[in-house]
Amino acid sequence: MKVTNKYDLPIALVRAMSRDDYTKGKSDYSVTGLLTPPKVSLLREQYNDRMEMDISDKMYTFLGTALHKVMEDTVMPENCTYEERLFTEIDGTTISGAIDIQERVPAGTIVWDYKVTSVWSVMNEKAEWVQQLNMYKWFVETVKKERVVGLKICAFLRDWSGNKTGENYPEASIVIVDIPLWTATEAEEFIRNRLNAHKEAKMVMDFGQELPPCSDKERWMSETTFAVKREGRKTAIRVLTSEQEAKEMAEKEKGYVETRLGEPRRCAGNYCGVAEWCKQYQGEKNESN
Question: CA 53 to CA 67: how far, in whole Å?
Answer without folding.
Answer: 22
